[in-house]
Amino acid sequence: MSTQVETPATGEVDRPTRLRLYQLMVELRDFEQRAYELFLENLVRGTSHLALGQEAIAAGYAVAMRPDDYTFCTYRGHDHTLARGASMAAAMAELLGRGNGMLHGKGGSMHLTDVTHGAMGSYAIVGAHLPIAAGAAWSAQVRKSGQVAVCFFGDGTTNIGAFHEALNLAVVWKLPVVFVCENNQYMEYTPIRSVTAVEHPAADRASAYGLESILVDGNDADVMYEIARKTIGKARDGGGPSLVEALTYRHGGHSRADPASYRPVAEVADWLSRDPVKRYRERLLSGGIGESELKEIETRAQQKVDAATEEARNGALPPIDEVEREVWSDGGAAWRN
Amino acid sequence: MAELSFREAIAAGIAQEMARDPMVYFIGEDVGAAGGVFKATVGLFERFGPERVRDTPISEQAIIGAVMGAAMTGLRPIAEIMFSDFLATCWDMVANQVAKTRYMTDGQVSLPLVIRTANGGGTRFGAQHSQSLENWGMAVPGLKVVAPSNPADAKGLLAAAIRDPDPVLFFEQKSLYGIKGEVPDGEHVDRLGTASVLADGKDCTIVALAAMVPKAMQAAEKLQKMDIEASVIDVRSLVPLDTRTILGEVKRTGRLFTVEENPRLCGWGAEIASLVADECFDDLDGPIVRITTPHVPLPAADVLEDAAMPSVDRIVETVRKSMR
Q1: What is the pLDDT of chain A when averaged over all its residues?
Q2: d(CA B208, CA B218)
Q3: Are residues B171 and B24 part of one domain?
Q4: Closest C-alpha among A31, A68, A34 to residue A232
Q5: What is the ipTM of this complex?
Q6: Which of A8, A168, B39, B132 has its CA 20 to 30 A from that of A333?
Q7: Nearest Cβ partner of A166 from B62, B96, B193?
């Protein structure tokens, strides 16, 4: 395979964009860290799939998107939803099962959605949202709205049928959609390389659909922002879909039940040394942005997460009649007269 | 009134809605220039063009995903799944995604879409192209389920399904495609969730759906010669279900028979039997009896398929023996 990692585009991203990328990554990091702590307090119910370590992908794409573009993501979707501008308090309250949650307690961690900000849903069955994102792109295409759909998914998704069905349809119909594989090296507990026919699960499949093979450093916010601009721009200009494989690593396990003890210590250490947030901070410092400015961003992010946590904790439990609301468009759940 | 075949009525229903609403799009396998393998969409491609009537690859997950993503972003799309049996290849999209997303997002997302599909037996296609799967859809909260029995209802209910703000599974019983019937001229839009009383007998109520409706009607005629007057209800829509009409008729006649093409276990008739037992037990003069296909995959040979599916004679015999 002639797959290559694209070289970092350092120096090309302007200062305000870089500060925005850093701010977003810090907010996402702090939110996920807080969600983890609230788990330990048994306040976050059910399950949750944290994206600690994968912030550069969410931030890079979100900053490059138009406000009316569509994001489709997975059950590991807190970052992607928040990155589009969704309320942090509403997200936290949803994790806590409160009535002031983003979905009024009916979706939970795996289904965060904020349509008003273009966050079109977090989908918890692997692969399902790739065809749905293609459908949103089809709608944008025929409405001539200029909108682009961006669809994020994990490496494990590349072995399910919906991945291939969606890619083929998107290419045949030349849809304005960008498929972004977040290759964090493990499907759940199993290394992706041990169950996949090719070395790079997404990039090595691109040629099967006539697409350029794109493999990038998913822990580099500048790289992600640049590839986002390129692929979204291509889609918006009528150039059709792209498939991007971003190499990354989740700092924790697959879900709250997983301590991730199956990962070699040296591998974890290696990836932690490439932590996208720390790495970007160093780059900004060496690029002339002052320590105090970064500190201020970090303090504001902490305050934002603290305020969101407080609002979520103070939220009332959802009213019980919520159970039979919104099955249908009339707001109810009636199936008979 | 014009006489149309069931398949012509389907095409007429789609055409009526596509002409009315530019947001109505239609996709599926071989639905374009080919007009569908059952020829139920002939003429739409020529009239509305390749953008609004679009062929897809054999990718049922992509088809349902596409109409879902389009419906949540402003279109009012129709998908064709060639045979209802193929719903099994995209049941995640139907049952997990289409059905649940409105609820899980507490109403942030609306999905005004229709999934049309050729359903049921009687065509000697064997067990993977003959299933009667309306009860699969009925079992999943968030899906409306419609199955017409005649050309007028096919057009009117399909138009209503397309205008409905929620996802509708629209089952077209494939042995009905060739039957003819009067269809109202001009715009024809029916109402989902309404059953029709087709015969008005006093002795018992026979409830049927889709291709079982004409069989129930023929059975009612034969029963009349045996001095048994049967009322016949065409359910038309399983979700929403017109329980008012069904319970009213059963209260009046005191007996209930269901005629179901689906295999025995968990057929839609079981739900109706349960409702009747719960809500008008004291009005019953005898046991509730379900007439179904036995709990087997449907066989292919003429004689075996005919023996498996409820027939006019089986309906007549079952009712007669039970009413003695």
Answers
A1: 95
A2: 12
A3: yes
A4: A68
A5: 0.96
A6: B132
A7: B62
